[in-house]
Amino acid sequence: QLVESGGGLVQPGGSLRLSCAASGFGLDYDVIGWFRQAPGKEREGVSCISKSTGLKNYADSVKGRFTIPRDNAKNTVDLQIDNLKPEDSGTYFCAAANWCALTPNRYFSWGQGTQVTVSS
């Protein structure tokens, strides 16, 4: 089971740190990916990380503002979001896979999501 936390209401320019905790299952996976979905839009991959290699991948739209911190417990993956913009608003999901790609169909287990709203 994957559980996201850390979402909330933040002003433009602010920061948030989202967390994805994996617990209570024998799911075999190597990658945790972060996705977001705004109302009426498709789910968009923003970042992923491989547990075994440490490889990270970021969507061009978030590079320089979104970071998966280096020191994470293997069962928790954070997403640090800085300089938030209104267009970053949406529901953020984490998901498990065995390949660090930003396409949702690579992922086979999803959390319920955490809401991020960027507004003044």
Show the helix and strand layout.
Blueprint: E1 2-5, E2 8-10, E3 16-22, E4 31-37, E5 44-50, E6 56-58, E7 66-67, E8 76-81, E9 90-97, E10 109-110, E11 114-118
Parallel strand pairs: 2-11
Antiparallel strand pairs: 1-3, 3-8, 4-5, 4-9, 5-6, 7-8, 9-10, 9-11
Count of alpha and pi helical runs: 0
Number of strands: 11
Summarize the main sheet: 7 strands, mixed
Shape: globular
SSE succession: EEEEEEEEEEE
- The residue fraction in helices comes out at under 10%
Q: Which segments are poorly predicted (pLDDT under 50) over 5 or more consecutive residues?
A: none
Strand content: over 45%
Alpha-beta content class: mainly beta
Mean of the pLDDT scores? 92
- What's the end-to-end separation, in Å? 34 Å
From the alpha carbons, calculate the radius of gyration and give it in angstroms.
Answer: 13 Å
Describe it for me?
- This protein has strands at 2-5, 8-10, 16-22, 31-37, 44-50, 56-58, 66-67, 76-81, 90-97, 109-110, 114-118.
- The termini are far apart.
- Helix content is 0%, strand content 45%.
- The mean pLDDT is 92.
- The protein is built from no helices and eleven strands.
- With 120 residues, the protein is mainly β.
- Strands 2, 4, 5, 6, 9, 10 and 11 form a seven-stranded mixed beta sheet that branches.
Task: Please tag this protein with its features.
7-stranded mixed beta sheet; 120 residues; 11 strands; mainly beta
